[in-house]
Every structure is written in C-alpha cells, then in structure tokens.
C-alpha cells in the first residue's frame, strides 16, 4: 500500500487519539517501525493488520474508523492542501461531485505510483446521485463517505449520504442533496493571497 495512504492513517491517529496510541498500535501490529515514509510502498497485509489493531484498540469498526479518516482528510488543518485540491473540482457541491470521475487520474498525475480505485458518478435526478467506487482498495467507499460529508459542510450543502451496498462488486454511495445552500460554506479562494 502506498506510503501516502499509510501516512494519512498515521496522521489521523496521532492528531485524534495521540502519538502514544499510534506507537502502541505499531508495536502490537509488529511492524518493526513506527513511522511511514510517504513515498514508499508497503506490504498491504501489514497496513491492514495495523488498521485492524488500531480499530480493536479504539473499539471501533473499520467502516466507522475509515469514515472518520475521510472526514479528517478534508476538515483538519493538517490536511488543508487536500481540501484545496478537492475544492478545485467545482464552485458548487454538485460540480465537485461531477469532478470525482476524474479523481483517480488527477491523483495519478500528482503521484504517479498512487493507485486509487476509479469513481463513477450517476445522476438519478438533479438532487439524487450515486457514486460507484470500483474495487482496488478495501474500505475506500467508507473513506469517500467521510470525504463527501466533510465536503458538503465545506460547501454549505445539506446532504444525506448512505452506503447503499454492493452492485456487481462495486460499492455504491447514495446521496440526496437536500439543500445546496443550507449554510454558509468555508471560505475558499482559487487564487493565492499575498
């Protein structure tokens, strides 16, 4: 598994639960190290074992943990760069959703060896959408639910999100846009400030 993914988990655990929790988890998972390097690739089984250890220690399901990770990736000040990258997807939440079809390719342009599963947005009506998360990374749909929820807040949109199960090996996230301008979104400028 790519080091950037592992580093994101490490950052989330340290920022949310403390560095001691992280060190204990890496020891219990018998990794032999405590710090991930962002640009290295690690054995997938070690990454999943560490994830299971963290979830056991926190008494949380993997799905809940990964959803919280997705929220962290967008909302925590440590991750402002990712939030900005995602906000370039569009001026409105719907435009952002429509940009997700290209997310895996855009990530690959930035980090050539980072493989994310492809996403496919299906518009059922102007307010109802399905996001299909293709296989390739266990738990990716749960991370995306957290990201989608946090981005809705970022845009000021009121959205109902549910993991609608699997269809032909693809995870489906169902979204209902209740109100596109429910609250004032977080400030965002496309241009850099001096």
In short:
With 194 residues, the chain is of the alpha+beta class. The chain has helices spanning 3-17, 19-28, 44-58, 62-75, 80-87, 93-99, 103-110, 140-155; strands at residues 119-125, 128-133, 158-167, 170-179. It is built from 8 helices and 4 strands.
Percent helix: 40-55%
- Examine the coordinates and then state which fold CATH places here, giving the name of the CATH topology of the largest domain: H-NOX domain
The largest pleated sheet is described as:
4 strands, antiparallel
**SSE pattern, N- to C-terminal:** HHHHHHHEEHEE
In the CATH hierarchy, the architecture of the largest domain is Alpha-Beta Complex
Number of strands: 4
N-to-C CA distance: 38 Å
CATH superfamily of the largest domain: H-NOX domain
Rounded mean pLDDT is: 90
Strand order of the largest sheet: 1-2-4-3
Note the beta-strand portion.
15-25%
CATH top level of the largest domain is: Alpha Beta
GO molecular function: heme binding
Protein name: Heme NO binding protein
InterPro entries: H-NOX_domain_sf, Heme_NO-bd, NO_sig/Golgi_transp_ligand-bd
Domain Heme NO-binding: 2-156
């Amino acid at each position: 598994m790519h080091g950037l993914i592992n580093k994101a988990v490490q950052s989330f655990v340290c920022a949310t639960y403390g560095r001691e929790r992280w060190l204990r988890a890496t020891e219990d998972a018998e990794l032999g190290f405590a710090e991930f390097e962002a640009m290295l690739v690690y054995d997938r089984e070690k990454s999943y074992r560490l994830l299971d250890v963290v979830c056991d220690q926190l008494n949380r399901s993997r799905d809940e943990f990964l959803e919280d990770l997705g929220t962290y990736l967008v909302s925590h000040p440590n991750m402002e760069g990712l939030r900005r990258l995602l906000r370039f997807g569009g001026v409105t939440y719907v435009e952002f959703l429509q940009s997700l079809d290209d997310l895996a390719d855009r990530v690959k342009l930035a980090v050539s060896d980072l493989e994310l599963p492809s996403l496919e947005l299906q518009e059922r009506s102007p307010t109802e959408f399905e996001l299909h998360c293709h296989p390739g990374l266990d738990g990716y749909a749960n991370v995306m639910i957290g990201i989608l929820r946090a981005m809705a807040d970022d845009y000021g949109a009121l959205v109902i999100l549910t993991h609608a199960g699997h269809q032909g090996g693809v995870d489906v996230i169902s979204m209902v846009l209740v109100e596109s301008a429910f609250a004032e979104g977080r400030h965002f400028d496309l241009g850099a400030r001096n």
